[in-house]
């Protein structure tokens, strides 16, 4: 894929340029993901308690504009993703400054690197979110010396976390957007000190390890099982790598995702964040450790938090970019071609491994239906591989008040149910779609006032809509659509935030 293959571009030499203060701003730690996402959760439940001290909390946040380093040739947002938000959450291995200077120096590769890299996608309808972990050792194309003007055919192969070392956040955003076509709306970075303070403000976070940990580098010793860790211990846990599992950064990413799940579960289930004193302590620790773009202040965070208040942990999925060994260096990885499925899902605003919902019609469950079934004319086409299915479903629709203009066959139908409408019939189509679970809704031409339903393999039988006409029982379906053929599309491994913290693989 673009940006992943070793023969696409020359590999950059290990020598790197000094970091640029104006691009970095105040650099932060690898654990931004815990702070920012928990901050969003806290803001969502904080309500007026946050507003009282908002001016002080907002002043805690350091804001750095990196737009000059990012450049102007950026991706555009697809129409179906209008309203979605993409957040790049970073953390560096910065060991300078109070609270960070006790972790020593790395002599073999000095400088500051983005050792945690998360791309968070909030869906346009705010019903789901995807958190993508990008391995720090990924080898991808990158602009030479982080040039904002170098064309893509001049980009070089470089280790992912060195983009931050050379050109800070601006370089990393440019590299990410150039390799994925995903537009980054906001960024945030956090440090060791803020991470520890946040965990302490939560009165610790529970972790679960399936094997004992005795790490001489972080001085962390844990027996197998569950433990509640304070800030210092938690920092050691998320930094531990070589003494656990296979010692790889990929294994550490899985543990970090489990840790983040624990933070999210704690923040949403505990009463701690409903207590003003604890809430303010948590927000103060989080905001003091943040560096963001100028537009990503407390107000924007609060608005986002309010918009995802009811999202639910099961609708937040964690993903690691699919990768394989980089041929030129077995200690590095390159992205597999299947990573394109992740970037496509973010660009088109549909869950990974899920079906995109195209068109501008809102989800049937987004708001009350405004068009009665007896005002809608429907045509039902059968491409599901089951004879008689269109007639059966037409009868179920007619029992609810819909007018069925006719049925027929549809060759080469896509999987599931497709509801099509002409411009001006959006609300009528929404009523029809409410009768077909999982239906995709698309605008078409030449249909007039008729809404067309095409049943494909795997289509579900119709159900009762909320504003049906009459009370006559619906006919009981005796036919079902044939199962869809097995897909050749690879499945991306995901982890829901609701999953047990003891499961790290």
Structure description:
The chain has 505 residues and is an alpha/beta fold. It has 2 domains: 21-358, LCP protein (Aminopeptidase), CATH 3.40.630; 373-455, Alpha-Beta Plaits. Helices cover 29% and strands 20% of the residues. It has 14 helices and 21 strands. The strands form 6 sheets. Strands 1-12-7-2-3-4-13-21 form an 8-stranded mixed β-sheet, sandwiched between helices. Strand 3 (114-122) and strand 4 (129-133) form a beta hairpin. The model is unreliable at 1-7, 14-35, 37-50, 99-110 and 356-365 (pLDDT under 50).
List keywords for this structure.
Aminopeptidase; globular; 2 domains; 505 residues; disordered N terminus; Alpha-Beta Plaits; 14 helices; alpha/beta
Write the layout of secondary structure elements.
Layout: H1 21-24, H2 32-46, H3 48-52, H4 54-60, E1 62-63, H5 67-70, E2 85-92, E3 114-122, E4 129-133, E5 139-142, E6 156-159, H6 160-180, E7 186-190, H7 192-201, E8 205-209, E9 213-215, E10 220-222, E11 225-229, H8 231-239, H9 249-269, H10 276-288, E12 291-292, H11 298-307, E13 316-320, E14 323-326, E15 329-335, H12 339-348, E16 377-382, H13 389-398, E17 403-409, E18 417-421, H14 426-433, E19 440-443, E20 450-455, E21 495-496
Parallel strand pairs: 1-12, 2-7, 4-13, 16-17, 16-20, 18-19
Antiparallel strand pairs: 2-3, 3-4, 5-6, 7-12, 8-11, 9-10, 13-21, 14-15, 18-20
Helix pairs in contact: 2-9, 2-10, 2-11, 4-10, 7-8, 7-10
């Amino acid at each position: 894929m673009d940006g992943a293959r070793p023969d696409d571009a020359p590999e950059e030499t290990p020598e790197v340029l000094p970091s640029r203060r104006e691009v970095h701003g105040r650099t932060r730690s690898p654990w931004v993901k815990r702070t920012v996402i928990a901050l969003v959760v806290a803001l969502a439940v904080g309500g007026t308690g946050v507003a009282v001290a908002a001016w002080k909390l907002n002043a805690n946040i350091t804001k750095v504009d990196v737009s000059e380093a990012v450049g102007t040739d950026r991706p555009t947002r697809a129409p179906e993703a209008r309203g979605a938000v993409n957040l790049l959450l970073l953390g560096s291995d910065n060991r300078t400054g109070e609270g960070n200077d006790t972790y020593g120096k790395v002599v073999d590769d000095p400088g500051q690197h983005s050792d945690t890299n998360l791309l968070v996608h909030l869906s346009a309808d705010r019903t789901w979110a995807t958190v993508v972990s990008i391995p720090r050792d990924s080898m991808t194309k990158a602009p030479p010396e982080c040039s904002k003007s170098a064309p893509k055919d001049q980009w070089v192969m470089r280790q992912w976390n060195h983009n931050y070392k050379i050109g800070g956040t601006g370089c990393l955003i440019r590299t990410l957007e150039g390799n994925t076509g995903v537009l980054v709306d906001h960024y945030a970075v956090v440090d060791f000190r803020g991470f520890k303070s946040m965990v302490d403000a939560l009165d610790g976070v529970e972790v679960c390890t399936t094997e004992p940990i005795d790490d001489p580098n972080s001085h962390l010793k844990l027996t197998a099982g569950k433990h509640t860790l304070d800030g210092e211990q938690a920092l050691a846990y998320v930094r531990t790598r070589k003494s656990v599992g296979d010692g790889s950064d990929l294994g550490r990413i899985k543990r970090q995702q489990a840790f983040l799940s624990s933070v999210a579960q704690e923040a949403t289930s505990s009463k701690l964040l409903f207590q003003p004193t604890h809430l303010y302590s948590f927000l103060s620790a989080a905001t003091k450790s943040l560096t963001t773009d100028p537009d990503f202040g407390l107000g924007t965070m609060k608005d986002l938090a309010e918009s995802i208040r009811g999202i639910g942990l099961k609708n937040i999925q964690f993903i690691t970019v699919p990768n394989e060994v980089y041929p030129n260096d077995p200690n590095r990885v390159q992205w597999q071609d299947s990573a394109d499925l992740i970037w496509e899902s973010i660009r088109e605003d549909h869950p990974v491994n899920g079906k995109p919902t195209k068109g501008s019609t809102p989800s049937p469950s987004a708001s009350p239906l405004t068009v009665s079934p007896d005002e809608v004319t429907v045509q039902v086409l059968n491409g599901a591989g089951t004879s008689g299915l269109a007639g059966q479903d037409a009868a179920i629709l007619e029992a609810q008040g819909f007018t069925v203009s006719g049925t027929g066959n549809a060759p080469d139908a896509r999987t599931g149910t497709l509801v099509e409408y002409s411009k001006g019939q959006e609300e009528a189509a929404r009523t029809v779609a409410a009768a077909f679970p999982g239906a995709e809704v698309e605008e078409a031409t030449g249909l007039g006032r008729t809404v067309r339903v095409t049943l494909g393999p795997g289509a579900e039988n119709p159900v009762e809509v909320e504003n049906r006409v009459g009370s006559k029982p619906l006919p009981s379906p005796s036919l079902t659509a044939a199962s869809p053929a097995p897909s050749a599309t690879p499945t991306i491994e995901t982890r829901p935030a609701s999953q047990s913290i003891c499961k790290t693989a």
